[in-house]
Amino acid sequence: MEKLPFYHALKVVENVCIGCTHCMNVCPTKAIRVKSGKADINKHACVDCGECLKACPVNAIIVEQDDFNQIFSYKQRVAILPTVLLGQFPDDITEEQIYAVIREMGFTHVFEVDEAVDLLIEGTKEYMRKHSQMRPFISSFCPAVVRLIQVRFPSLVENIVRLKPVVDISSQFYRKKLIDEGYKNEEIGIFYVTPCAAKIAAVKSPVGEDEMLIDGVINMDFIYNKVMLSIKQTGKEKQAVSNYRHLSTTSIDWTLTNGEASQYSGRCLAIDEIHNVIAFLDKLENEEITDVDFLELRACDRSCAGGVLSTENRFLAVERLSKRAKKEIKRQAETEEMYSTYRPYLLNNIAISEIEPRSILSLDADMMVAMDKMKKIQRIMRVLPGIDCGACGAPKCKVLAEDIVQGHAKMTQCVFLQKMLTKEELISPQESFDISEETWGKGRFEKKKFNS
Amino acid sequence: MDFKFDIEGGNFSKAGSASSDVKKVLKKLNVDPKLIKRIVVSIYEAEVNVVAHAYEGEMNVSIFPEKIVVRIVDKGPGIPDIDLAMQKGYSTASPAVREMGFGAGMGLPNIKKNTNELNIKSEVGVGTEVELINYLN
């Protein structure tokens, strides 16, 4: 059965892409090939982790966002900020100032995603009590990790905690609150400021949820630039109405590494960075690791502070957020009271339905056919050089062999084989050249013109 | 279709690598994830047994349309009393092995739990052959 691919926010800008191999080589799900001199992302395999974007030397991979002006098609314009946004700014810019500038940009309400964290913690504790046989519980926090498990670790899908991520809980809260205040549903536009591509993808095609709770997504670097520009131009003194509310320490720490794992009892581990996550899931799947109760797994190094749309150095962002959290220890969070009325409503709507496995690993749905293909791959591997040079447009010899068997590539794409075949006069030098141009693009082998 | 993986006795840092390789093959063959898990859990136990007790061994995987057969053959001390070894909690593992988190005496019982058919042949002073058969469907 052919499943519809996920929505992806990561896009290759074709006229900027120089067709190198950086993104292809770092992709943890081997989703990228080079064809006709451009990177090509396989939508079924991509998990939106953003490793390709980080590796691109020419910024040809971007995170597609919604047009900012669409916020003005709503009467009530709600901005939901990730807490890491507040960690992007220099120390002398206050939270109140940031809130105020974002309101000036046109939002009628500004609040932080992680305000609803206490509710999710309560929901998660209850979930873990009810489903104690499903240990270890894997947090659904990071959408890139959820997708990674779907495509690469299908047998672990059922260990994912089937509760809404906090952004969905808080947007549901705000919508309900505004409706209760007398606004019509269609007058309310909820916009999420995202620190990464995976969150956008999750908003546009949520896993295990039917309705979209968010109307649009704005990239965090865009907001960062707007805020910086406004503060630089109008000076720091200006203080508009900010509506800033003090958050709990737990909320501020939530998106940082160990923010979740520190909240639950039992053996809880926090693992960040996608390769670390993959290595751990590999062992978990084999049951080499047992007796773990809760796993907080995040695709980026230093969790969301390392998101692809963050502008500040992630270590400095973490430091700032930790400082902010410490400041709030003595203070009573102002958000709890507001949420208390809606607690039962939100807890009733916190569950998501089953998360389906979407394995990209199998060679064929029919095991006998798959076995046949595997034999062919083994035969092809005997003639490939095994040096993983990438000159064929695939990241590894093994991947090329698979592509050949699946009908997506040709043996002759391998430059080693091309040399052999040319020497044996089985293909002409011109044919060999043409094959390489198919991979690397027309005119690719001509002398470069530099403006000196 | 047959695959062969070597197992190194005494090298706990690599214990599990043969099982991981088998897992990758089964995933490629579109074997049901639940069955893969059961197979991998049981062959991992068997692999650790070889690492913990034997000098060297190999894991042979044969895939048929109706079943998957894994034979783990080692050169080692052998098992003097197989019935005793099958009892939960019984272990001859050294304190050093136990310190690494292995040797709880659950190896063979766990394998039995996760396999359709388990055959053990052993000769003291020569080695052990463990055969695990799992039927597809």
From TrEMBL, chain A:
Top-level taxon of the source organism: Bacteria
Signal peptide extent: none
PANTHER family: ION-TRANSLOCATING OXIDOREDUCTASE COMPLEX SUBUNIT B
Protein keywords: 4Fe-4S, Iron, Iron-sulfur, Metal-binding
Domain 4Fe-4S: 372-431
MF terms (GO), sorted A to Z: 4 iron, 4 sulfur cluster binding; metal ion binding
Alphabetical list of Pfam families matching this protein: Fe_hyd_lg_C, Fer4_9, FeS
Domain 4Fe-4S ferredoxin-type, residue spans: 8-36, 37-66
Xref: InterPro entries: 4Fe-4S_dom, 4Fe4S_Fe-S-bd, 4Fe4S_Fe_S_CS, 4Fe4S_Ferredoxin_RnfB, Fe_hydrogenase, Fe_hydrogenase_lsu_C
Protein name: 4Fe-4S dicluster domain-containing protein
TrEMBL record, chain B:
Domain of life: Bacteria
Domain Histidine kinase/HSP90-like ATPase span(s) in chain numbering: 19-132
Gene3D superfamilies from the UniProt entry: Histidine kinase-like ATPase, C-terminal domain (3.30.565.10)
Pfam families per the UniProt record, alphabetical: HATPase_c_2 (PF13581)
Record's protein name: Anti-sigma regulatory factor
Native source organism of the sequence: Ancylomarina salipaludis
Phylogenetic lineage: Bacteria, Pseudomonadati, Bacteroidota, Bacteroidia, Marinilabiliales
